[in-house]
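User: Last request for today: this protein with nicotinamide-adenine-dinucleotide, please.
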Amino acid sequence: MFINGQWVAAASGKEFEVTDPATGEVIGSVPDGDARDATAAVAAADAAFAGWSTTTAAHRADLLYAAWRLMTERAGQLAELMTREQGKPLKASRAEVAYASDFVKFYAEEATRVTGEWLPSARPEQRFLVLRQPVGVVAMVTPWNYPISMLTRKMGPALAAGCTLVLKPAEATPLCARAVFEIFIEAGFPAGVINLVTAADPAPIGEVFTSDPLVRKIAFTGSTAVGRKLAGAAAGNLKRVSVELGGHAPFIVFPDADPVRAAKGAAALKFLNAGQACISPNRLYVHESQAESFISTMKDRVSAIQAGNGFADGVGIGPLVNEAAVAKVEAQVDDAVAKGAAALVGGHRLVDGDFSRGHFFAPTLLTGVADGMDIYRNETFGPVAPVITYSDTDDVLALANDTNYGLAAYVYTQDLSTAIRAFEGLRFGIIGINDVNPTAASAPFGGMKDSGIGREGSHEGIAEYLETKLGGFAL
Ligand code: NAD
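Assistant: Here's the final one, the structure of the complex with nicotinamide-adenine-dinucleotide:
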């Protein structure tokens, strides 16, 4: 762990092991922190805040640029570590490292664009000055599915704003977090500004983060259940929160869309990270007039996706994170098939040969999916594309909106009015219109409803780490 400028062991002296999800091999171990370590890290971040928050924006930008350069130079090593620890194919790891680096560069630029306002008053002898200042110590909790970009998406804007931080990465991917910290340390961030606490049991760390009065904000990415719990506890102590949570994205193919292009897009998007993405489509609504062509293209594409070790050539999806994830996907598929869906491709675990050492599920295409099936309502987080055929275009937006989630939605149409109606009518934070990659450092990412509060990326992302201060000046 990294606390107050030093690499340290856990107060307990314990460590926990990290395994490769493709092979089950132990690939490292890290300190097993507890509440004592989290409290020490928060105290270090608090002690560093006065100095760090009064550095110039230009200086903070310089350090972020230095971190960005190092990340770019080490992109290959970071990608290999990610594939080893998280399992995604090497090409996907490289793409994530590039995406993660973009946030560091974007917020190096954005640091110098935090400005105030000089406002008029109705009283002739009064002036108002509005200043934006960092919120203080930020406690961050990140997931395993994007084990580098979810860190930089928080650390970039927090550091640019002048906040200090304590980060707890997911227990499945602490080695990626350690590698990110090594880069930021080498870039020159002073002692106490960035702190890393690893733990096999996250609950005691979460309790410190949400109760310690020195923590002013919680930034979380992960499941809705845990986000709700942390946000609830933080609210009790009036801390600011931003939470990026689960999703259940609809993907709508309108009758005027090109079904082949839509199917190619759906196949590329659904199987990214083996479906372990919060913006992964979980309900593919295909108009009945397009179903045959869409499904046959999907069938070809999904059949061609090879599962395997992310280091092997030609592999399109790696393992799932653990056995519980495989069991959840299997249960959803079995439930759908028992209720009338058909598995046109896959539909089962992969257990033969090398697959037996890891957590693999076959790339799966389900047709005939309907409400009443578990998969229709609950996030899969696995490599399963569920197709629902619909007939009434007037109803499809209502069907798509009928979910507790509100993160991402996708629409395929060639009609401008249909596109605009869908863009305006879908209650989701991110809408891809004929676009399966609507995310970038410059764009606000985040959800509505049970998918979260707040945005990451863009100028909105740094606002999450700033307080507004009003000065009234009587002349
Ligand atoms: P998770 O909620 O179990 O874990 C996320 C993080 O929370 C991990 O670091 C974990 O250690 C920590 N955590 C768990 N219990 C905690 C507690 N009691 N106190 C403090 N920390 C605790 O989720 P996961 O399995 O890692 O990730 C999968 C979920 O994350 C999916 O639902 C997915 O949709 C969501 N996700 C959302 C986004 C987004 O940006 N909206 C991005 C990636 C993943």
